[in-house]
Amino acid sequence: MRRGELYRVSLPRPGDPRRSRVYLIVSRQALIDSSYTTVVCVPVYSNYHGASTQVEVDESEGLKHHSSLHCDNLTSLPKTALTDYVGSLTAARMREVDRALAVALALNAPN
Asked: Strands 38-45, 67-70: parallel, antiparallel or unpaired by DSSP?
């Protein structure tokens, strides 16, 4: 399990209308490698509104269609739920995610 990987999660959260949803792991690698049981993830949605906290992703990352990461909707998921590997993001795309996370959390954007 690595930062930047996408996983499909069945029955992701109460109230989610989807039976499954893809999530991107954004926790730091040290936490992922630790005995801590959960990781911070960003959900993938099919809609894209052009917000500065959204990052477009597509089939090149292993998804079925053009989608977007919604960095304003961070969630903590158990590592045990992340078993259905979908794909991973390139370093360039992860820099876009880092910038979107910085905006979402009102942090100084990374270089």
From this structure: antiparallel
